[in-house]
Specification:
The structure holds two protein chains of two kinds.
Chain A (H helix, E strand, L loop, with lengths): L5 E13 L9 H17 L9 E14 L4 E5 L6 H8 L7 E7 L2 E4 L12 H11 L4 H15 L14 H13 L5 E5 L7 H16 L3 E5 L3 H7 L2 E6 L2 E6 L2 H10 L9 E3 L10 E9 L16 E9 L6 E2 L1 E5 L5 E6 L14 E9 L7 E7 L1 E3 L3 E4 L7 E6 L28
Parallel strand pairs in A: 3-7, 3-8, 5-6, 6-7
Antiparallel strand pairs in A: 1-2, 1-4, 8-9, 10-11, 11-12, 12-16, 13-18, 14-15, 14-17, 17-20, 18-19
Helix pairs in contact in A: 3-4, 3-5, 4-5
Chain B lengths: L1 H17 L4 E4 L8 H7 L1 H15 L8 H21 L8 H28 L1 H4 L8 H28 L10 H25 L3 H14 L12 H7 L3 H14 L7 H26 L2 H4 L1
The chains are: A alpha+beta, B mainly alpha.
């Protein structure tokens, strides 16, 4: 059991994106002339063939990870991050370009529910066919047939061609067959996006049953609730590379939710372990969140509620401890500081030893459009910096776009760093 | 010499024994070690795919399987009419049996070739979503044609009873020629199927090959009625030996077997299978990326 069941080393997959694909959706006449031109060029070169111009594209690069028996691994990442390519390589549909994968168990993949379903065939016939396609033996299918039918709730329609099924029934049947696969490793791509809430719940239940039975599941999803509740391990891919992996699924999910595309600012900072490790206090989490407590993923409007959230481990109660943030605009001009100790002393948040979470709402209708940087600002007042803005401080970013004003005159843009919606009155 | 080889062999064996049964290593360019055993493990899928194709083919048709009989019967009538018009003597054997015994293997070959060469494209969704040895798909297409062929064999038997043609010991050779026809269509079919994935041009080439083949195969005529100096050249078409052999097995003494043609056909068929499967295996690794 000590050996990993899946071991991936330096995996890479390259695709050649041919230039000719740019000819798609062009008039046939253009295609023909392009062909003739290239044929002419071919003749001129004396018949020597030259490969068509192509661009290399690495869908996966330097991906390495191990998975132990019985783990449920959530693979997350934005569209085009290489998740599906990874699953395709693992399930042997396509060959890696470099690197090595070793699998210590039978693998079955479910990249699309209903693969190989034929609309003309009846439910019964499709169960047999689909089971065989997914790698079950006939005896296995026969043994599990009743279970599959019961799971899909299609008893009455077994002899009906599936082309007459409702889309919900179709999906239920398709998932039911797949859910009764019995491999050591099950690879699942985004199947929970189908069906109604009731059925989704059933699917999730089935997946955790499979995992509880000691099987290993690889699971691609954009449904972060499902990933968090099902997975014991997460792998975060971005542009073909592994950004984060490990058993702290929650942290990785948060990072994914907070992460703009790699290289762009993120609205979440998490302490990786020993950053800013001060005997009085250690910050753990620093983020810009929306009203529901979710880190911002997309630009927000100027009239959306915005919160700066700090979570910290307070180790000693020091009355001089100040926490807060410094706000910079995109030209790195300091706009303001805001600290827990800003108001009169009786209004400060009361700190206790242990983990505390603090938040501060940025006023609506306050900042103009643009990207802002928020830096953690923690100190022991007039004694010592814990995190000094502009120096060693963790930073997060957010962007404001739109919602500047209700005025018919100022819908698009306003001059200045700030865009407050102050009221005017006549006083004569 | 023997002592030099032995140690290497034993090392290899020990290594494989240490591996667990399902361990699998994926590396670029590493064709699966267990290709053929994998293929065997997935044989049920081949049955299922063939079964699907047969089921689907005759769903929502009014006369169902009768279609499998109608097409060769109609072809036979056309050829008989052609022979009458051209004034080809029918010899000792009854004309319908003589012609039908040639129409059958030809129709099988053309159906198997057409379907297997289009099979990969027709199952593109499977190829890009599930792993299994890809050879299963064209093999299933050929298997479908075999089923149709078996049905039409029944019609041939009925014709033989009607015309009172009693087969001799030559009938025992029939399975050999059937096997050759299957092998030939599989060999050429898998090659064309693989080519079809990358170059869809072959979709247009296959019907042409099939149409052209009809005229250079001894269906309306027999090989012995062709001038002798052309016989060898004609026999380069591997279907010539197969059709002649098929006819000989059915009619026995009625037709003499041209052994040269059969030998040539065996050579060409073996070459087609070897080269076809080799090409297919080389190409199949990239099917999912290209299709």
């Amino acid at each position: 059991m000590s050996d990993p069941i899946i071991s991936v080393e330096n995996l890479g997959k390259r695709y050649n994106v041919r230039q000719e694909s740019s000819l798609q959706y062009v008039a046939l006449r253009d295609v023909l002339t392009a062909r003739l031109a290239s044929a002419g060029a071919w003749l001129k070169r004396g018949g020597s063939t030259e490969p068509p111009p192509s661009q290399e594209f690495w869908a996966l690069r330097e991906v390495s990870f191990d998975v132990d028996h019985g783990q449920v691994v959530g693979i997350i990442g934005h569209n085009g991050a290489g998740k599906s390519t990874l699953l395709k390589v693992l399930s042997r549909i396509t060959e890696p370009t470099e690197g090595r994968v070793s699998l210590d168990g039978r693998i079955a993949s479910l990249l699309e529910v209903g693969t190989g379903f034929h609309p003309e065939l009846t439910g019964r016939e499709n169960i047999m066919l689909n089971g065989a396609i997914l790698g079950m033996t006939r005896a296995e299918i026969v043994r599990k047939f009743d279970e599959i039918v019961a799971f899909a709730e299609v008893e009455r329609f077994l002899e009906t061609p599936v082309k007459r099924y409702s889309s919900g029934m179709y999906m239920r049947l398709a998932f039911a067959v797949a859910a009764h696969l019995d491999p050591e490793i099950l690879v699942v791509d985004e199947v929970l996006a189908v069906g109604d809430a009731h059925f989704q719940k059933k699917c999730l239940g089935r997946m955790s049953e499979v995992a509880a039975g000691g099987r290993t599941v690889l699971f691609v999803s954009h449904n972060m609730n499902a990933v968090e509740s099902l997975c014991t391990q997460a792998l975060y891919l971005e542009r073909g590379h592994v950004v984060a992996q490990g058993h702290d699924v929650r942290a990785i999910v948060t990072r994914y939710l907070g992460g703009y595309v790699e290289g762009e600012p993120a609205s979440v900072w998490m302490n990786s372990g020993d950053d800013v490790d001060h005997p009085v206090m250690q910050p753990l989490y620093f983020a810009v969140e929306d009203a529901d407590g979710r880190p911002l993923m997309t630009p927000v409007r100027n009239d959306d509620p915005l919160f700066v959230v700090i979570r910290a481990d307070v180790r000693q109660l020091d009355p001089a401890l100040c926490m807060g943030f410094a706000l910079f605009n995109q030209d790195s001009q300091l706009l303001l500081w805001s600290l827990t100790t800003d108001g009169p002393e009786e209004c400060w948040p009361r700190l206790e030893r242990g983990i505390v979470q603090l938040r501060c709402q940025l006023p609506k209708r306050f900042l103009n459009e643009g990207t802002y940087r928020v830096e953690l600002n923690c100190s022991l007042h007039c004694r010592e910096w814990l995190t000094e803005p502009g120096k060693n401080s963790p930073a997060v970013h957010f962007e404001i776009q739109g919602g500047l004003s209700d005025s018919p005159y100022w819908l698009n843009a306003r001059p200045g760093i700030l865009a407050p919606g102050w009221r005017w009155e006549r006083t004569d | 010499m023997i002592t030099a080889v032995r140690p290497r062999l034993s090392v290899k064996r020990r290594e494989t024994a240490r591996q667990r049964p399902w361990q699998l290593v994926l590396e670029p360019g590493l064709t699966s070690r267990n290709y053929w055993s994998d293929l065997w493990r997935y044989r049920e899928l081949m049955y299922f795919l063939a079964w699907r194709d047969i089921l689907v083919r005759y769903k929502q048709t009014a006369i169902g399987v009768t279609w499998a009989l109608l097409r060769p019967a109609a072809t036979m009538l056309v050829f008989i009419a052609f022979r009458r018009l051209a004034g080809i003597p029918s010899g000792s054997a009854p004309e319908p049996v003589l012609v039908f015994a040639a129409v059958l293997p030809w129709q099988f070959f053309s159906a198997a070739l057409t379907e297997s060469s289009a099979s990969l494209i027709g199952n593109a969704n499977l190829i890009s979503k599930v792993y299994f040895p890809r050879l299963i798909i064209p093999a299933a297409a050929v298997a479908t044609a075999v089923v149709d062929f078996a049905i039409t064999l029944g019609l041939l038997a009925a014709l033989m009873v009607w015309y009172g043609v009693a087969p001799g010991w030559e009938l025992l050779a029939l399975p050999v020629f059937v096997a050759m026809a299957i092998a030939l269509s599989l060999g050429v079919g898998v090659c064309l199927a693989a080519l079809n994935v990358e170059y869809r041009d072959f979709r247009y080439i296959v019907p042409f090959v099939v149409q052209f083949g009809l005229f250079i195969s001894p269906i309306a005529f027999t090989l012995s009625s062709v001038p002798e100096r052309w016989q060898a050249l004609l026999s380069l078409n591997p279907m010539v030996g197969i059709i002649e052999g098929f006819r000989w097995s059915i009619l026995g003494n009625g037709a003499a077997l041209n052994l040269e043609a059969v030998a040539l056909s065996t050579v060409v068929t073996s070459a087609a299978v070897l080269l076809g499967v080799r090409y297919f295996r080389r190409m199949e690794r990239s099917f999912a990326d290209v299709i």
